[in-house]
Design brief:
It comes from Pseudoalteromonas qingdaonensis. With 335 residues, the chain is of the alpha/beta class. 29% of the residues lie in helices and 23% in strands.
Length: 335
């Protein structure tokens, strides 16, 4: 596939540009930013020196001719844009017959009404929500093979759902008990745009989005189980560590939990650390994996899951979806 990335100057966009540019079967044919961007016309490697000689394409502007130009040269577009921008752009590219891989939250929720509550805007294309395939790659591989519009899963949900879905699928979680997810992310999860809260000297480990973070309905929609999700901002660059507390049904043992996780045993980008093991940021930084470890005491379960928020939590997961869509192995270009 010939790929265009829109929003290529951001952390996820730049990471994805490198992955596509070095992919054995994909070709990066364009990198775009907003027409008023200060980075317009600069080569991407000028913003990210580590991409020198890998992605030297200039950043083009999304002007009035951009849609037609992209449609003439690309088979698919990756939207590394704000949620509202993705909702505006995706229908235009779909109308040109292009495949759309959206890394924003613009099409992740099935219920359009939730966008006003959790995203702060009315969804202008609710008809596309039913069409979008949720891009949690290991769990929706068949649907992703024929998808035209992919809503790439969020970073926190990727860690949380891979840790919880095997247990829910096996019927091990107590149905009347809320699952508690405490997760901390590196500052790159907040994006590249400067803000006082993510300034190096101001960053401090702290929770945010209490009771109203937009990833809560995304997790609950896929898990079909109530959760209390609390994200935290950590004073490190990249990575997510989720510590998850759940109540198991009476009689469930550690061996039952370990057996449930075997549904993921053959997935090349899932690393089951095993019982009485813990995941860590160090273990997954700059890696495309999910690491999962678990502990059981009585009916109480604690699971730790770690991902790199820019790889498995964003661009790496997008590439997995693109691989499946192109009929390739899920880990092509990632390991």
């Amino acid at each position: 596939m010939n790929i265009v990335i829109i929003g290529a100057s951001g952390y996820s966009g730049a990471e994805l540009a490198k992955l596509v540019a070095t992919h054995p079967h994909f070709q990066l044919v364009g990198c775009y930013v907003s027409a008023g961007s200060a980075d317009l016309h600069k080569p991407l490697s000028a913003l990210y020196p580590e991409h020198k000689g890998i992605v030297d394409l200039p950043l083009q502007g999304m002007d009035e001719n951009a849609i037609a130009n992209i449609a003439a040269q690309a088979d698919a577009v990756c939207l590394c844009t704000d949620h509202k921008v993705s909702v505006e752009l995706a229908p235009q590219f779909l109308a040109h017959g292009l495949k759309v891989f959206d890394l924003s939250g613009g099409f992740r929720l099935a219920d359009a009404h939730l966008y006003e509550e959790f995203y702060g805007f009315a969804h202008q294309h609710p008809e596309l929500l039913a069409q979008a395939v949720y891009g949690l790659a290991e769990w929706h591989s068949e649907a992703l093979k024929s998808a035209q519009l992919v809503a790439v899963a969020g970073c926190y949900p990727t860690a949380s759902l891979n840790a919880l879905k095997p247990l829910q699928q096996a019927g091990l979680l107590a149905g009347d008990q809320q699952v508690i997810i405490n997760a901390v992310s590196g500052v790159t999860g907040a994006g590249r745009k400067a803000a006082i809260g993510t300034h190096f000297c101001e960053v401090s480990l702290a929770p945010y989005g209490l009771f109203n973070h937009r990833h809560t309905p995304e997790i609950e929609q896929s898990l079909q189980h109530p959760v209390l999700f609390t994200p935290h901002l950590g004073n490190f660059k990249r990575g997510i560590l989720a510590t998850i507390y759940a109540t198991l049904n009476a009689g469930v043992t550690l061996d039952d939990v370990s057996s449930a996780y075997q549904v993921l045993a053959d997935e090349p980008l899932i690393r089951l650390l095993g019982a009485n093991q813990v995941a860590s940021i160090k273990g997954i930084e700059n890696q495309p994996y999910v690491d999962i470890g678990w502990h059981v005491k009585g009916q109480q379960l604690i699971v730790s899951a770690a991902i790199d928020n820019l790889l498995k939590g964003a661009s790496g997961q997008a590439l997995q979806c693109m691989n499946l869509n192109a009929g390739l192995a899920i880990n092509t270009g990632l390991v």
